[in-house]
């Protein structure tokens, strides 16, 4: 006879694709932060271009994560799901503003670009932490 553990709704494991996209946006936004910092120190325009492309990649993954967080919110409606959704939404909105700032001329993005990239990276890291920590399947009784 198989024993299935009772799992509260707040301890449901995150889907592997959801985890992949959530964890994937963090290094892209980190790369954007690093290339913004490098541009601020060197003023080589190519670093600004690298940042723009890394932000686009991060925003694509963040958009997918936003949709998946809405699904998670509808399915579980727990306090952690609401917080996770709000953090992902803030990441998406500020990431979009960051992309608009990076769409300007390279000289015009300073000093907003590194500051926005730092905020977006921290929000993405918090979102990944909320999605991937504390959610286990099974466990010890």
UniProtKB/TrEMBL annotation:
<feature type="transmembrane region" description="Helical">
    <location>
        <begin position="81"/>
        <end position="101"/>
    </location>
</feature>
<keyword id="KW-0472">Membrane</keyword>
<dbReference type="InterPro" id="IPR019251">
    <property type="entry name" value="DUF2231_TM"/>
</dbReference>
<protein>
    <submittedName>
        <fullName>Membrane protein</fullName>
    </submittedName>
</protein>
<feature type="transmembrane region" description="Helical">
    <location>
        <begin position="113"/>
        <end position="132"/>
    </location>
</feature>
<feature type="transmembrane region" description="Helical">
    <location>
        <begin position="12"/>
        <end position="34"/>
    </location>
</feature>
<feature type="domain" description="DUF2231">
    <location>
        <begin position="15"/>
        <end position="130"/>
    </location>
</feature>
<keyword id="KW-1133">Transmembrane helix</keyword>
<dbReference type="Pfam" id="PF09990">
    <property type="entry name" value="DUF2231"/>
</dbReference>
<keyword id="KW-0812">Transmembrane</keyword>
<feature type="transmembrane region" description="Helical">
    <location>
        <begin position="54"/>
        <end position="74"/>
    </location>
</feature>
């Amino acid at each position: 006879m198989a024993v299935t553990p009772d799992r509260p709704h707040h301890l449901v494991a995150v889907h592997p694709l959801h985890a992949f996209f959530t964890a994937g946006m963090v290094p892209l936004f980190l790369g954007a932060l690093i290339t913004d910092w490098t541009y601020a120190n060197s003023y080589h325009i190519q670093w600004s271009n690298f940042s723009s492309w890394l932000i686009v990649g991060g925003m694509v993954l963040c958009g997918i994560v936003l949709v998946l967080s809405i699904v998670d919110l509808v399915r579980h409606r727990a306090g952690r799901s609401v917080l996770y959704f709000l953090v992902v939404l803030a990441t998406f909105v500020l990431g979009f503003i960051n992309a608009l700032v990076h769409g300007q001329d390279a000289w015009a993005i300073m000093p907003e670009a590194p500051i926005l990239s730092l905020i977006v990276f921290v929000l993405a890291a918090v979102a990944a932490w909320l999605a991937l920590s504390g959610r286990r399947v099974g466990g010890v009784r």
